[in-house]
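Our consortium's second objective concerns turning raw sequence data into structural hypotheses that experimental partners can test. To show how far this objective has progressed, the report includes one record in full. It was chosen at random from the queue rather than selected for favorable results. The single chain below, 533 residues long, was entered without modification.
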Amino acid sequence: MSTSWRCVLVGSESLLIQCGELLEQGGHQVVAVVSKARPVHRWAAGRGIRVLPDADALLQATLLQPFDYLFSITNLEILPKAILDLPSQGAINFHDGPLPEYAGLNTPVWALLNGEPRHGVTWHLMTGAVDRGAVLTRRAFDISEGETALTLNTKCYEAGIESFEELVRDLGEGRLRPHPQDAAPGRIFRRSDRPSAAGVLDWTQSAETIATLIRALDFGTYPNPLVSPKTSHESRAIIVQEASLGERGSGAAPGTVLSIDDAGIQVATGDRNLVLRRLQTLDGTPLSPRDGASRLGIAPGGRFDLPNEASVARLTAVTAATCPHEPFWIDRLETEHPFEVPAAPLRGGVPNPLEYTHADQAPMGVGDGEEGVTAVLGYFARLGDCAEFDVGFADPALARLVEGVSDWFAGQVPLRAAVDFARGFDTLRESVRSELGRLRQHLTYSADLPARRPVLRSAGRGPEARPLPVSVHLVERLEDAAAPAGSALTVAVRPRDGATRWVADRTALGAEVAEYQAQFAEFCRAATLTPER
């Protein structure tokens, strides 16, 4: 083995950068980094290291080959065998848990939830089986009382750096002996594994159990890849970021609010009181205990909502179905371009539901619901003179998906319209058909996603993220059409014939709605007579 290695790094977080610098300090060369993370890109660019977007690009980068080692560090993607076969000396992965006891993803969180006294990190050879390769080095440490996901991940980070230094030294001196994992993994945690009930707190549990869940899901300012611990009162929801054990033996029913002050909200649980200290809205706005109670409309003597067996099962099932689609929604929300009705500029407040008015419109000759949505989007494009924009979208399938759990999942999702003004209605209809297919494939997302992803808060999805001001909904009955709170205009389309109901916030839109409807009728007639126009 040469004393200086050519290495490729794959991953996304700052541990990769630290390990890359340790390699360079040891006289080794990092020839490429495979990453989508911007901080990693900046670090690599500053050192003249080639950046590749994905593993496929590494396969195509024949000029980088041969190289000695591939190091997978904070990489959450499974690498194909063709990639693992590229390095001449070996492909090595960093795992933030002890192997074989804890395999898979997010193991620090699961160690906390399972009450483990110790945790650790592992560097191991990569094989076709996830986290099953021979162990090269391990580092174990105690889990402290009051540990959170943030503090335990910090310990993993520090142990990862220390053990990597040891790993590089032993590899260079030829003293490292791989140890096969004789036992099967004790636990394998997959991307779709999340705490039950989407993190909704069950006040009948013990105070310690609830506090442990809250700590295990406290990632500080870093992304939370799982769920947020949350609760509600009369369907108004908040996230609980921090809690501590309170007095014993209040005798009140679980979920009862006993007191509210600057120090926290004291709540009865299954055995003793719990004090809720740091709170947050579902879009990431910090709340004081008093503000949180006010937002929920709860006072001493009131009671938080209690999830029952059926709602726990439903929350868990919908979370499992939707969580694989979070990367799509993060990208969509981060790049949102809301359509603004020309007469209804952005407004800070949320109108009173009594301020909404509606006006029905007979079928416009555009056929079914899909054509109706196409016509509405085409009209909006003309009205706002914009070729690409987002509106809220919902249909009966989405309504059925979130039925019974609508407090915790988005009841409408961003539909992206892309209009080519040089082409006709038929072209737009094909574009809309493809977009509707994408939305239905990706279902919906958890309402706490903006709070869990700082990138969304920085993109304008929080604090106090405003709903999309304009929406298009497919509804089976026009009389069921309703506008989301904060919406300036919602156009409901009946699938069987394309008839519409326009639901407007009359504090933002007055007589304009009738004018828009007349224009829309003319637009539909033109689209029907000359679809190539």
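The partners drew two points from this record. Residues 345-354 have pLDDT under 50 and may be disordered. Residues 450 and 529 are 44 Å apart (CA to CA). Both points have been shared with the crystallography group to help prioritize constructs.
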